[in-house]
Specification:
Strand content: 35-45%
Number of domains: 1
Order of helices and strands: EHEEEEHEEH
Strand order of the largest sheet: 1-6-7
Length: 88
């Protein structure tokens, strides 16, 4: 099941929006080649990279973003523009 929920409704979702991004690159044999750890200092859209909030307080008060939840796990946060573009 896929669910779309506003970020400003739940502190757990807000925490996910500010969590660091970890990218793991794997070769054809399944061996890890490189791991990138990217700190997020603001909440950004995972699809377009657009800014949603600069601080945790701003994220709690007026963020216009959404979390995409698949089978009970948050997979990404998206901005209002991407929600309109991809979710109708």
């Amino acid at each position: 099941m896929i669910v779309l929920t506003p970020i400003d409704g739940d502190p757990r979702i807000q925490e996910f929006a500010l969590r660091s991004l970890i990218i793991t690159m794997v070769d054809r044999r399944g061996k890890i080649r490189e791991v990138l750890h990217i700190e997020k200092h603001e909440a950004v859209c995972d699809l377009c990279g657009g800014l949603m909030a600069l601080t945790k307080k701003e994220l709690e008060e007026r963020a216009k973003g959404y979390a995409v939840i698949i089978d009970g796990q948050i997979v990404q946060v998206i901005c209002e523009g991407c929600r309109k573009r991809f979710w109708g």
